[in-house]
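Is this the right way to post structure tokens for a design question? Let me know if I should format differently. Anyway, here goes:
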């Protein structure tokens, strides 16, 4: 009996040693050596795991940054330039500073400007609402008001205004992670450059209907009239699909487009003084007057030059006859 126990123990011990050796060899053969810099990069990340960088989380971003040959295609919007400079120092890369960005809501359709034409009593979600019908107002492009963007924001930078029925962005809390832009089924939230001293201009509308239809649906809609584009002297505004768009990289913040917009669809943010529309319009009219006078003078000069050129052959012919 004792020998049986001894043999059993011996066999189990030998079997255990053999299996342990096999497991060790397999582990050594298939082990994955992880770059220790991944942990270092992850430590300096903000830990938001918001996905704003395009990866599942900060760990995934760290892995991608370590494997990448440079940081041109990797950027953490939450940590910004400060965090990216730390990442660059760990990896020995150079990183270009990026201008800070912020979310803007491109819908100006308040409850007053865009009254409801029906009542929605379904599940309170913009995504669900958008999948069912165009919305409870006459504008099929406007905000649905259920607050999916607010729920998506992990930083408390968005809230719904009960008076206007529209989301409001707290730019002090906004990290430009882009979660709200992905959550909005109408693509009404855009990440834009904050601008110098936080000043920026944008068209707060996405309605692509023609002018009369857009105006009927919302009193504050962009009607695609093109006045803003004609007024802008910096080629910063284009009108496509009946909607104007301001290129932040070209905009000089002169606010002339805002003054000339007939519906108030163009918004300005963080300017130190309120807009004096009359003064701006007077400035535009004076500039246009000078342009017309210059054009008329150039046309007159061109006409005189053409008449003089036409008269020369006649004079030459008279001299040849003499």
């Amino acid at each position: 009996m004792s020998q049986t126990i001894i043999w059993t123990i011996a066999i189990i011990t030998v079997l255990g040693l053999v299996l342990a050796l096999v497991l060790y060899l397999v582990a050594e053969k298939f082990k994955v050596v992880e770059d220790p810099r991944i942990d270092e990069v992850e430590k300096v990340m903000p830990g938001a795991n918001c996905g704003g960088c395009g990866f599942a989380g900060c760990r995934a971003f760290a892995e991608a940054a370590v494997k990448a040959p440079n940081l041109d295609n990797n950027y953490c919007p939450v940590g910004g330039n400060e965090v990216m400079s730390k990442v660059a120092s760990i990896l020995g890369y150079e990183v270009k500073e990026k201008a800070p960005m912020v979310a803007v809501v491109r819908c100006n359709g308040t409850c007053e400007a865009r009254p409801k034409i029906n009542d929605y009593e379904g599940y309170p979600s913009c995504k669900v609402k958008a999948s069912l019908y165009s919305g409870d107002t006459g504008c099929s492009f406007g905000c649905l008001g259920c607050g999916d963007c607010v729920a998506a924001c992990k930083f408390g930078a968005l809230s719904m205004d009960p008076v206007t029925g529209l989301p409001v962005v707290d730019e002090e809390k906004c990290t430009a992670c882009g979660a709200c832009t992905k959550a909005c089924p109408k693509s009404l939230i855009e990440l834009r450059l904050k601008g110098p001293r936080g000043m920026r201009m944008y068209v707060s509308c996405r309605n692509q209907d023609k002018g009369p239809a857009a105006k009927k649906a919302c009193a504050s809609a962009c009607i695609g009239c093109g006045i803003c584009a004609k007024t802008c002297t910096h080629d910063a505004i284009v009108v496509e699909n009946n909607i104007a768009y301001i290129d932040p990289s070209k905009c000089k913040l002169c606010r002339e487009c805002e003054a000339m917009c007939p519906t108030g669809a163009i918004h300005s943010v963080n300017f130190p003084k309120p807009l004096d529309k009359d003064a701006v319009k007077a400035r535009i009219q004076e500039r246009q007057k000078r342009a017309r006078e210059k054009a008329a003078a150039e046309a007159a000069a061109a006409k005189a030059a053409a008449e003089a050129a036409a008269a020369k052959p006649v004079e030459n012919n008279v001299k040849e006859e003499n």
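Format looks fine. Someone answered above. Worth noting: The mean pLDDT is 90. Strands lie at 101-105, 158-160, 167-169, 189-193, 200-203, 237-240, 243-246, 266-269.
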